[in-house]
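anyone seen this seq b4? input:
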Amino acid sequence: MKRTHIVLLTVTLVLASMFARPQEPDPNARVTVDPISPVSVAMGKSTPVSFTLHIKPGFHVNSHQPTEQYLIPTEFKFSPPPDLVVAKVQYPPGVLTSFPFDPNQKLSVYSGDIAVKAVVLTSPQATAGKYTVHAELKYQACDNNACYPPKRVPVQFDVNIAKGAASQKARPNAESPHIHN
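predicted toks r here
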C-alpha cells in the first residue's frame, strides 16, 4: 500500500513538472511570436506594446485585411483582466502578391517578419499589481502550392500597474517563458 502511494506521488510530480514547464517552441511552426518583456503602466495611463511575428521562409499568411472574404485574416484576440484594455491594434499593410496557382490574382499577404502594435490602457480605478494579458494569434499559413489548416497560437504577457507615472515600452525578450506555439 505504501509503495502504491509512492508510485502515485512520483507519477503526479512528474506530470506536474511536465505541465508547469514552459512549452518549447514547435520546430515545425510556420509562424512564431517573440515573447515580450513585462509592461509597466501607471493607473489611468497607457503604454505601447509590439508583437513580432516570424513567418517561416517559403510560407506566407493572409494579411489582417485579405483581398477576398473567404480568406482567413491574421489577427490577435486579446483577453485582458478587468481594469485593462488592449486597444488601437495596428497591423501592417499586406503586400499584394500573385502566386503560381493563380498568377492573375494578387493576394494581400505577410511574409518574413512583421510587427503588430497595440496600446495597453488601465482604468483610473485599477489596483496596483501584476496582471497577465492572454491573447491568441489566429492565422493560416500557405506556401506556393497549398494552404494549411488555420492555427491558433496562445500568447501572454505581464502588465505591472504602478501608482506612479512610470511607463515602459514592451520589448522582445527571448528569455520570457510566456509565448507558447
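The domain at 26-162 is CATH 2.60.40.1250 (Immunoglobulin-like). Residues 3-24, 166-181 have pLDDT under 50 and may be disordered. kinda curious what u guys think
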